[in-house]
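testing teh design pipeline on a random one, pls ignore if ur not involved
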């Protein structure tokens, strides 16, 4: 039990900090800063944070700043592993009818990916087992959305995105347009599990807290159509890695888990593509977009 004078001093400081934002011209900024002050002070007071611990926190944030550059964003990773990215997505993409659920964007989306014809291959030379992906884009009334734009991206069989390799190579990403019936089809790579970048402060935090850096195997989608809420999502491969390994960034939604059907070598492909002695997989993803502003 805290001595009354101590409690009053702590509460008085919180009140003074909150009050310091009273003249903020932007009402939203004012309420965000007030709430942030209240919650941060509650954390310090609840945990009785020591001065060494606060310094360690500052050192951690400093290290996150030092490792961050145009290709590496440690603060996004931190937000991801704390579940804050996923919570922000949930708050901003409330369930609407049967609209497809959203999940994290991640740091490896690159705008301006190569255009890929329907039925084409997004691999662009990246290594991995071929995967036939097919589906449709509809609105919540069930009407097809012809011309919907799909951006898709994923890692190669070594668990690396093209931007993590040396050089400027673009691979395992593409931009497609649904046909007049709102349908799409393309070749990609069967997704594999991979670790989020864990050679920095966020990786050390995961290690210190006995958490895995692994992401459940997935294929990223960013889907847009006029008048519809843009959808950022993945499909996850159902299987052992998903069920036992979990996901370092809390991105898995049961509705996004798909069976990737295994096809042994020699199984005819949907478009007659010759794969010789290679196995392949296939998956269907029917996408439903909510109205814009839903
Ligand atoms: C990704 O899926 O690409 C990703 C998401 C969050 C953190 C790191 C990677
Ligand atoms: Fe990913």
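output:
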């Amino acid at each position: 039990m805290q001595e009354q004078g101590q409690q009053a001093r702590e509460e008085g400081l919180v009140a003074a900090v909150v009050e310091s934002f009273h003249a903020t011209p932007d009402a939203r900024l004012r309420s965000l800063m007030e709430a942030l002050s209240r919650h941060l002070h509650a954390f310090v007071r609840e945990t009785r944070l020591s001065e060494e611990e606060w310094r360690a926190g500052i050192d951690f944030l400093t290290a996150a700043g030092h490792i961050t550059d145009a290709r590496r964003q440690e603060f996004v990773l931190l937000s991801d592993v704390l579940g804050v990215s996923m919570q922000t997505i949930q708050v901003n993409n409330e369930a609407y009818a049967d609209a497809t659920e959203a999940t994290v964007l991640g740091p490896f989306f690159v705008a301006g990916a190569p255009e890929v014809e329907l039925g084409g291959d997004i691999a662009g030379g990246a290594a991995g087992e071929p995967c036939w992906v097919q589906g449709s884009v509809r609105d919540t009334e069930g009407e097809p959305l012809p011309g919907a734009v799909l951006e898709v991206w994923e890692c190669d069989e070594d668990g690396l995105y093209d931007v993590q390799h040396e050089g400027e190579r673009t691979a395992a990403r593409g931009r497609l347009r649904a046909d007049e019936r709102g349908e799409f089809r393309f070749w990609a790579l069967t997704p594999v599990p991979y670790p989020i970048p864990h050679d920095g402060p966020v990786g050390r935090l995961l290690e210190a807290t006995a958490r895995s850096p692994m992401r459940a195997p997935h294929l990223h989608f960013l889907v847009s159509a006029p008048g519809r809420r843009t959808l950022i999502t993945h499909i996850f491969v159902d299987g052992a890695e998903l069920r036992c390994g979990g996901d370092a960034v809390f991105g898995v939604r049961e509705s996004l888990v798909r069976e990737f059907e295994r096809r042994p070598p020699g199984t005819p492909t949907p478009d007659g593509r010759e794969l010789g002695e290679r196995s392949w997989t296939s998956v269907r993803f029917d996408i439903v977009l909510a109205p814009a502003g839903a």
